Amino acid sequence: MATTQSEAVIIKGVRGGLLVLLDEHMLWNELLAEFDQRVQASQSFFSGAKVTANLGGRALGKDELTALIEALGRYQMTLDTVVSTADDTRHAASMLELKSRAPSFAGGAAGRLAGAVLRGKSDDEANKRTAEVISPPTEEITGGGAMFVRRTVRSGQRLRHDGDICIVGDVNAGAEVVAGGDVVVWGSLRGMVHAGASGNDKAVICALILAPTILRIAEVAGRGPSPEPYKRRVRILGLGGKPEAEHAYPEIARVVDGGIVVERWKL
Amino acid sequence: MAGRVITITSGKGGVGKTTTTANLGTAIAMHGKKVAVLDADIGLRNLDVVMGLENRIVYDIVDVVEGRCRPRQALIKDKRLPELALLPAAQTRDKNAVSPEQMQQLCNYLKSEFDYVLVDSPAGIEQGFRNAIAGADDVIIVTTPEVSAVRDADRIIGLVEAYGLHLPRLILNRIKPHMVARGDMMSQEDVIDILAIDLLGIVPDDEAIITSTNRGEPAVYDKSSRAGLAYNNIARRILGEQVPLMDLEERPGLMVRLGNLFGGGSSNRSRSRRV
User: Fold this and answer.
1) Domains within chain B, CATH numbers bracketed
2) Chain B interface residues facing chain A, Cβ-Cβ under 8 Å?
3) What pLDDT, in 10s, does the model give residues B198-210?
4) What is the pLDDT of residue A98?
5) Residue range B74-88, pLDDT digits in tens
6) Does A60 score more than 70 pLDDT?
7) A76 pLDDT more than 90
8) Residue predicted with more confidence, A10 or B140
9) Nearest 5°: phi and psi at B46?
């Protein structure tokens, strides 16, 4: 199905769905129209597919991503993951509760595929490759694909990312952060954080001030064993706002013997 | 004239949005600026009552957007203050009677006629909020020092950011210095620490506010009202003046000391967590 009739839109079958590579320079509306045209030709084939969209370095907002979701929706396709080197695009994706990541496997065949689109020319060798190579090993995701967020993550907002997440700012109560890898909060963590969400129980959660509502690492959830349950409770509920002075040091949470343990984070 | 549209919102209900809008509108008008206050709480209109203008409503915001009258006809001039006008909400319709686009157009019109347009937002994050925010240049968040109100304020700040507006400013309403001193109420530092936005002002809890809203006479008319004074200070800050926080606002210390003198609350001192 993937032909070379257009280099701006490349569609590949991959394990678990479709990979759609979209040129990063073409005007967004023209690109969507081009995509529409391509899919229309064999719509029954694409119907129901879960799509991973590689958008290169294009910076997209929520509205533009929504347009892509709608374009896919017209053919009963759902957007599952957004791959982009642009922070803005990944942020928009996480606002729309989509999975997102940076192209963390540039060395692999998929990287060459993406590269072909980025350079705006088709790569025959890359086109011959198929799906299997697209799912990269986890350590590569956590290695190259960290998401960096520099703001306060507020109540009702949700960050989702397959790799590590680093937040310079606070994570407020009512916010959700879900990462495939580690989560580092350079600020106060008062909300819900799930690290190692894809099952990695070696993942850790660190914060300058760790006062979460709920912590989860892989399948383990809950509060860490606390030496001072009362003060902990006060901090977890956020009643006092700031923690007691003696608690104002960075902490790290990890899984030890099937439970979450919180200890002083020695940098 | 190129005025500014300032939306006053909170997320949670009952924290003092309408009272704040009425008082700030009145106070800014008292400083000689032309002000329009706009009630965006369609279906639950209150601003007219708080401002004592209920009995003068002929047309409302829905009449304006549906073209039954011109904006000028719906604007009620406050007889006490010729610079102040109110555009009331409709009571017999609901939030969906107006679209964000219509609201934006209306705000643009009002901006051309007034120096300041204050929009009183309804509670919640649905259509009513989207309407209220549609034409905004600035946003003021009102919250009380309660965990639930602060949580909702946080949510609203996130939504305002998502609209591409710059970070809103905060009014912390109904603070009770003696409770803060006892450690039973969040302090301004606690709230600012969580919300991470600039503080525009603090309004102390004041029973006189209830009397003044019932009478339809904003507290800023009453020179002896502490809340009225706080609102006046906030109005001056909006106008660009540098006004220090009121003594009461800045250091509950004085009240604590008084409280300790009369209430024998010496044990409170050791529980103070401020560093």
Assistant:
1) 4-271 (3.40.50.300)
2) 147, 151-152, 154-155, 157-159, 161-162, 183, 186-187, 189-191, 193-194, 196, 273, 275
3) 999 999 999 999 9
4) 84
5) 999 999 999 999 999
6) yes
7) no
8) B140
9) -135, -30
- Domains of chain A are 9-136 (3.30.70.260), 142-264 (2.160.20.70)
Distance (Å, rounded) from C-alpha A131 to C-alpha A19? Answer: 8
Residues of A with Cβ-Cβ distance to B187 under 8 angstroms: 241
Cβ neighbours for A25, distance < 8 A, ≥ 6 positions apart? A120
Q: How many C-alpha atoms does B21 have within 13 Å on its Cβ side?
A: 35
Cβ–Cβ contact A156 with B under 8 A: yes
In chain B, residues with a C-beta closer than 8 Å to the C-beta of A154 are 154-155, 157-158, 161
Answer yes or no: do A241 and B189 touch at CB < 8 A: yes
| Dist CA B234 CA B237 (whole Å) | 5
Annotate B224-255 with DSSP letters as a single string.
T-HHHHHHHHHHHHHTT---PPPHHHH-THHH
Instruction: Reduce the secondary structure of chain A to three states and give it as a string.
Output: CCCCCCCCEEEEEECCEEEEEECCCCCHHHHHHHHHHHHHCCHHHHCCCEEEEECCCCCCCHHHHHHHHHHHHCCCCEEEEEECCCHHHHHHHHHCCCEEECCCCCCCHHHHHHHHHHHCCCCHHHHHCCHHHHCCCHHHHHHHCCEEECCCECCCCEEEECCCEEEECCECCCCEEEECCCEEEEEEECCEEEECCCCCCCCCEEEEEECCCEEEECCEEECCCCCCHHHHHHHHHCCCCCCCHHHCCCEEEEEECCEEEEEECCC
Mean pLDDT for B160-180 is 92
Mean pLDDT of B228-251: 86
pLDDT band, residue A63 (cuts 50/70/90): confident
**Do residue B194 and residue A245 have CB atoms under 8 angstroms apart?**
no
